[in-house]
């Protein structure tokens, strides 16, 4: 066997595919009898049609591949039939406990959906507080935005007033220079 090098694992020895195929054909035909003559090339070629090129592929796999796949076929997803007897006395202890646990879980989920459990009440109360907090936050932000807009409007008016005063002062100064 050859090694891969520096501490590597051993590699599998490579054998020819023809040898594996010949071994598979011989195995299929059965044990060789004394006096059997090797068959001619015509019979071997007909046998090769039956055998797949890869000996790892079986005839069963070829049949499965040849079978058309139907979307609603029964082989794809066999439906599970519940073999649960409804009589509690016929069930084993584990089955009975599992059934009771499932029923209790369903009852709890139903009550929870209706809001009758303690956890559901707590959840609803928490949701109500969150909604209230969000409403207050949005109202506060709206008030701040309105105040900011008002402040910016006043600032713009003041700047416009100052600009008019400067323009008036500059015009007055220009008129005053012409008279002299």
UniProtKB/TrEMBL annotation:
<protein>
    <recommendedName>
        <fullName>Casein kinase substrate phosphoprotein PP28 domain-containing protein</fullName>
    </recommendedName>
</protein>
<dbReference type="Pfam" id="PF10252">
    <property type="entry name" value="PP28"/>
</dbReference>
<feature type="domain" description="Casein kinase substrate phosphoprotein PP28">
    <location>
        <begin position="54"/>
        <end position="146"/>
    </location>
</feature>
<feature type="region of interest" description="Disordered">
    <location>
        <begin position="1"/>
        <end position="180"/>
    </location>
</feature>
<dbReference type="InterPro" id="IPR019380">
    <property type="entry name" value="Casein_kinase_sb_PP28"/>
</dbReference>
<dbReference type="InterPro" id="IPR039876">
    <property type="entry name" value="HAP28"/>
</dbReference>
<feature type="compositionally biased region" description="Basic and acidic residues">
    <location>
        <begin position="106"/>
        <end position="166"/>
    </location>
</feature>
<feature type="compositionally biased region" description="Basic residues">
    <location>
        <begin position="1"/>
        <end position="30"/>
    </location>
</feature>
């Amino acid at each position: 066997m050859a090694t891969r090098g520096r501490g590597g694992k051993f590699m599998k020895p490579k054998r020819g595919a023809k040898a594996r195929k010949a071994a598979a054909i011989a195995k299929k035909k059965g044990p060789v009898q004394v006096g059997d003559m090797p068959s001619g090339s015509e019979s071997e070629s007909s046998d090769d049609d039956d055998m797949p090129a890869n000996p790892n592929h079986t005839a069963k796999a070829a049949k499965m591949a040849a079978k058309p796949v139907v979307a609603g076929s029964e082989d794809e997803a066999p439906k599970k039939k519940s073999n649960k007897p409804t009589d509690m006395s016929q069930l084993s202890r584990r089955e009975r406990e599992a059934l009771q646990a499932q029923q209790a879980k369903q009852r709890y989920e139903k009550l929870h959906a209706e809001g009758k459990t303690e956890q559901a009440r707590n959840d609803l109360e928490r949701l109500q507080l969150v909604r209230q907090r969000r409403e207050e936050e949005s109202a506060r932000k709206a008030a701040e935005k309105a105040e900011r807009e008002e402040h910016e409007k006043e600032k713009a008016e003041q700047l416009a007033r100052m600009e008019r005063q400067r323009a008036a002062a500059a015009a007055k100064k220009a008129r005053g220079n012409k008279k002299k």
